[in-house]
Write a structure and sequence with these properties.
two-stranded antiparallel ribbon, about 35% helix, TIM Barrel, globular, alpha/beta, 7 helices, 8-stranded parallel β-sheet
């Protein structure tokens, strides 16, 4: 069986980062979005990223960042990837990729077949895709809301870049989600928390154990 790679998103403390590495996560996600309970500043993330164990890819989640904010994050934080989780256009994704010199993962909210078609357009410019549940209208957060989408919408879909499944995943649901979608990568945030923004080391362990089967 191919090992499924996991991204633990919304890490805020050194203990979170260390536990992510300890249980075998492949990616550590830092959220640069003030409205999120998981938000960190570039200054806070600097120490977390610099001290992250080797082998843990450091991902900056940003929502519709302008060039000034993009530069500020990159000036402070040693990164391996940028995740764009807003309403960025295909052209903007390409521009961020060119400006940063880093791989870019574009998050796309999925609720209908049209959203899947939109995701395929981003696959032409992004290095990876993150397929998440589309946030409800007027939601404060574009992701991390703990909701799953209808996985049948992407079952059998072919992508020309690596992709990651997100949206409401927990230790109880992740094995079924992988089986239903064929995902080789998964993203989790609220599913490994005891409350919004506070990670639970036991849930982190259980999630990776469930993923390993």
């Amino acid at each position: 069986m191919t090992k499924i790679r996991a991204k633990f998103c919304g890490l805020k403390t050194a203990a979170d980062v260390d536990m992510a590495a300890q249980v075998g996560a492949a990616y550590a996600g830092f959220v640069f979005f003030e409205k999120s309970p998981r938000a960190v500043t570039p200054e806070q993330a600097q120490g977390l990223a610099r001290n992250a164990p080797m082998g843990l890819a450091k991902v900056a989640l940003m929502v519709n960042p302008d060039d000034a904010f993009l530069d500020r994050v990159m000036d402070h934080v040693p990164l391996d990837m940028i995740q764009l989780h807003g309403q960025e256009t295909v052209d903007r994704v390409a521009a961020v990729r060119a400006r940063s010199g880093l791989p870019v993962m574009k998050a796309v909210g999925i609720a209908t077949r049209d959203d899947v078609i939109s995701a395929q357009a981003y696959a032409k410019v992004a290095d990876q895709l993150l397929l998440d549940a589309k946030a409800p209208k007027n939601a404060d957060l574009p992701g991390g809301n703990g909701h799953a989408f209808d996985w049948s919408l992407i079952a059998g879909e072919k992508w020309n870049v690596p992709w990651m499944l997100a949206g409401g995943l927990t230790a109880e649901t992740v094995a079924g989600a992988v089986a239903a979608t064929g995902a080789q990568q998964v993203d989790v945030s609220s599913g490994i928390e005891r409350q919004p923004g506070v990670k639970d080391p036991i849930k982190m362990q259980h999630f990776m154990a469930a993923l390993a089967g």
